[in-house]
């Protein structure tokens, strides 16, 4: 299904007067509000093809109905999100869960929804039905050369799919590691992984990048071969300029200072991009900003500061993606909430008075430095984000529209109550 532009316009018109009051109030004290709105309008967050169905845990899964059963339907869902918020204009495919049958048809479908193809993702963390050799004891790190070769070949295949679609990056997340002390020789595992990554790196087209995602634990619980940003950066530095470190917010040990990690990776020119989510205990994959919105703002504060320091383009020079799971919410509603949280944090980061903050830092005025950040964070910028959506042709209230126009009910009517999104 598609949402016609005039339905969004009608919905917006009914709310326009109230919005204008809120926007005028919010914009009153922001001298550069126009340039902030322009930056918001060009900022997009990719939606992964695996986030459109109901998630679950190893204990159970409770699907809500109307889930996309095909790649085409997943793109349709991202198209719905993008129509409503005008900030979800990209999809990130997971291979082999979402292999296009006909590239031209998929590309023109993407075009019709105004979607681009973000990074493509390989999968060597599970065995596929027709797979010859098992990844039970790892893939790129495996002691058996034939298994490493199979995993390398898979990644090269993923690059080929991405080239056809117009992607510009491969994301490699490895579950490789060990569950018990003694299981693995750490140095050998690192060397095998490096050699495998070198072969994948050699297959990258000239204008491509490879994103190396790290994770502290799970599914391996004693060691992860790409376990933290240090290990990822080691690989990325050894591989070359096209290799960068990808930060997933849920992949750190508790209380890690992610904003500091981001600042240093940016300083080194080695930050690939982000997988956004939120968590309380581990890799909870909760809605972005649901638990720690202040941390999200502090991360965006470093992102904007670091990107500006090296003259980077906020919208295009890093990969922005949501990587979350939706166990008890409608996936589309959850994604709308996540994108909204990201846009709010980005707006807050754009609002920080960097001159004053820098002066406070130079003079060690700790109180003023904290005041600058917290006063910014406590500023209500929701109407500014809504204004950017309005000007882009999106809805003033995406969630409200989704509910009022019974989008999920329509998807259930079209697709049925028991469709299951592939890949979960
Ligand atoms: Mn991730």
Tally of helical segments:
15
Overall average residue pLDDT: 96
The major sheet is characterized as: 6 strands, parallel
Written as H for each helix and E for each strand, in order along the chain, the element string is: HHEEEHEHEEHEEHEEHEHEHEHHHHHH
Taken as a percent bin, the fraction of beta residues is: 5-15%
Structural class: alpha/beta
- Number of strand segments: 13
- Low-confidence parts lasting 5 or more residues at pLDDT below 50? none
Kindly provide the radius of gyration, computed on alpha-carbon positions and rounded to a whole number of angstroms.
22 Å
- Please give the share of residues in helix: 40-55%
Identify the bound ligands: manganese (II) ion
Spatial ordering of strands, largest sheet: 6-7-9-11-12-13
Shape designation? globular
- What is the CA-CA span between the terminal residues? 23 Å
Structural commentary:
This protein has helices spanning 5-27, 33-41, 71-85, 103-112, 145-165, 186-202, 229-239, 258-267, 293-309, 331-351, 354-362, 366-377, 382-392, 398-404, 407-415; strands at residues 47-48, 56-57, 60-61, 90-92, 116-117, 120-121, 169-173, 177-178, 209-213, 223-224, 243-248, 271-276, 319-322. Helices cover 48% and strands 10% of the residues. The strands form 4 sheets. A 6-stranded parallel β-sheet has the order 6-7-9-11-12-13. A 3-stranded parallel β-sheet has the order 1-4-5, with no helix packed on it. Strands 2-3 form a two-stranded antiparallel ribbon. The mean pLDDT is 96. Helix 5 packs parallel to helix 6 (186-202) and helix 9 crosses helix 10 (331-351). The chain is an alpha/beta fold. It is built from 15 helices and 13 strands. The protein binds manganese (II) ion. Manganese (II) ion is lined by residues 173, 213, 248, 275, 323.
